[in-house]
Structure formats: structure tokens, C-alpha cells
Amino acid sequence: MKVWLNGEFVDSQDAKINVFDHAVLYGDGIFEGIRVYGGKIFKCAEHLDRLFGSAEYIRLDIPYTKAQLTDAMNEAVRVNNRVDAYIRLVVTRGVGDLGVNPFVCAKPSTFIIVDSIALYCEQMYEQGLPVIIAKTVRTSPSMLSPSAKTLNYLNNTVAKIEAVDAGVSEAIMLNADGYVAECTGDNIFFVKDGKVFTPPREAGMLMGITRQVVLDLAADLGIEAIEQLFGKEFVFEADECFLTGTGAEIIAVTKIDDKIIGNGSAGPITQKLLGAFRELIRKG
Ligand code: PMP
């Protein structure tokens, strides 16, 4: 596998970051996870907009333009002979000293990994996942914006550990006010009485690209979608629940803590949206 690192392709074992890079010392940097379907980068502009938004939030100057990063990603896909792939695009703060001050770091490092991703097997897409509600609260926007996709993922990691300890693969995270925010690596949707519900931006989560695709697909299919704050009582009353993310795409949740959701397999609206999503990525 060849990794694009600061403008050059290097073998994956030679793709190295300096130990004084603040990405290593402080989780100071930003990233995107992006899919390639049929040789085409899915929602490329949206991912780059979010990357540059995250950069602005942490006051990091990305040393490339969006056009240069698009070319680099396409080149990395080609060099690695991929048609369908998962891209990890990362910009680190760069090499600094042992203090936190990011402005002593000379130059960010940018790298692009092109690999595959399969978070769940096909059977899981039919049967759905069990999840838990994490005790770990999602970082409040006043602490660190959850809408910025930074390399500081420990809030999510600690909640993920709760999930793994409970024998499930995802955890729903509530915000400091007790409202549902998102999962550790996915956004969350519920279906109640034929309508689709998802937390709004103010719930404090990453504004997922897949989340927006699903909202658009729901509109196309004539399914009413409502962005609204809701607590965990609502979760247990839902007819269906599903998660969205670049890696997971759309996957049903059929058990939350000890409560079975719906009839215990992917519900009709989840299936309809998943079908439309697969059609969309197939058409490109
Ligand atoms: N929330 C979090 C915390 C994430 O890390 C991700 C991406 N894995 C998502 C939501 C989903 O975002 P997207 O659809 O843009 O991948």
C-alpha cells in the first residue's frame, strides 16, 4: 500500500510522523473519512468543506487547496489500484516543542491513506445491531466543538470502550443536558409513526455527511424527517432506529440496552432508506 505523505507516495511502513508532531503529543489535528465508490470520491466537496471548517476552528492552515487535495486523493486511489475504497485524509499540527502552544509548530503534515473498510457484515445490515447508552457524556460544544472532526477522539473512545465492555459495537452518547447526541462514530436516527427523527446541530454532534444524504433521501422518498432534541425515553419508544456514517453507511439498531426496538430486525423505513442509499452510491 502506498501512502500519500506531504506530496509524495511512500510505502506504508515508511509513512511516519515525527514524535514531536502535536498530533502525536496532543491529538492536535483534523481528519476526514471518505468513501470511494466505483472509482469516484463520494461527497468529495462536502468532506473538504468540513475539513476546512475543522481547520478554521482549530486555527490550522492546511498547506494545500481543496483542488490539490482532491487531485492527491484521486491519485492515491489510482496508485493503489482501488475502485471501491475508504480514504483517511489527515492534517496534523506539525512538529513543535513539548508545550501545548500550536503556533510554534512549523508546518502541518498531510497524509492520505487509501484502504478498505467493512465495519459490519451483510447479515448485520438485515438483523441490526445491539447498542448501549453510554454513561460517558458527549463533549459539550462549549468545551470542544463536536462538529469539528479533530484527532482528539478520546471522548468517543472512552464511550466505545463502554460498548465493547458490554459486548456491543456502538454506544449512544447523550449530551450534558441528557439529550441524545450521536454514537461514537455514527449519527443516529429514529423512526416513530412513519416519521424520521434525528438530533439537530445544537444537540452537539458531528454533522455527518451521511446524515445529510439520508435527510435528502428521506425528502426524495416523501418521508417526513424532523431534526429535534429528544431524551432517552423517546429512544425506547421508537419503532425503528438506525445509524449513519461513512464507514457504517446505514445500519439498523434493533436493541438498545435491554430493550428490543421494533420487531428485532431492520424495519421498513430503514430498509427503504438503505435501498435508496445503495442505489445512489451505485449510480455514482
Ligand atoms: N459522528 C461521529 C463522532 C463520527 O466520527 C462520524 C464519522 N465516522 C459520524 C458521526 C458520521 O459522519 P459521516 O457521515 O460524515 O461519516
Q: What is the H/E string?
A: EEHEEHHEEHEHEEEEHEHEEEH
Mean pLDDT across all residues, rounded? Answer: 97
- Outline, from the CA principal axes? globular
Helix content: 25-40%
Q: Which features does this protein show?
A:
single chain, 284 residues, alpha+beta, 6-stranded antiparallel beta sheet, binds 4'-deoxy-4'-aminopyridoxal-5'-phosphate
Short overview:
The protein is α+β, with helices and mostly antiparallel strands. The chain contains 8 helices and 15 strands.
Task: Give a topology summary.
Elements: E1 2-5, E2 8-11, H1 22-26, E3 29-37, E4 40-41, H2 44-57, H3 66-79, E5 85-92, E6 110-115, H4 122-127, E7 129-133, H5 154-165, E8 170-174, E9 180-183, E10 187-192, E11 195-198, H6 209-220, E12 225-227, H7 232-237, E13 240-245, E14 249-256, E15 259-260, H8 268-283
The chain binds 4'-deoxy-4'-aminopyridoxal-5'-phosphate (PMP).
Write structural notes for this entry.
The protein has 284 residues and is an alpha+beta fold. It is 30% helix and 27% strand. The protein contains eight helices and 15 strands. The strands form two sheets. Strands 7, 8, 9, 10, 11, 12, 13, 14 and 15 form a nine-stranded mixed β-sheet that branches. Strands 2-1-6-5-3-4 form a six-stranded antiparallel β-sheet. It is globular. The mean pLDDT is 97. 4'-deoxy-4'-aminopyridoxal-5'-phosphate (PMP) binds next to helix 6 and strand 13.
